[in-house]
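Quick log. Single chain, no ligands specified.
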Amino acid sequence: MITGKKSIEELVEKYPDIVNYLAKRNIICIECGEPLWVSLEQLLKEKNVQDISLFIENLNKEMLKD
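-> predicted structure:
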């Protein structure tokens, strides 16, 4: 399960498609070829995501649907 506390690095390693999911929502998580060194929650706050819980819920549905 994806939580806001997980690092972007860990999430990209475990769920490579997360990069595209986030990019489609104008949230860039890769810089200079490397995952950002922040948690998902920190990244979403920096990008001014209003409802972080809902965003993560939808992200889980997409990444874990298989």
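Residues 8-63 form one domain.
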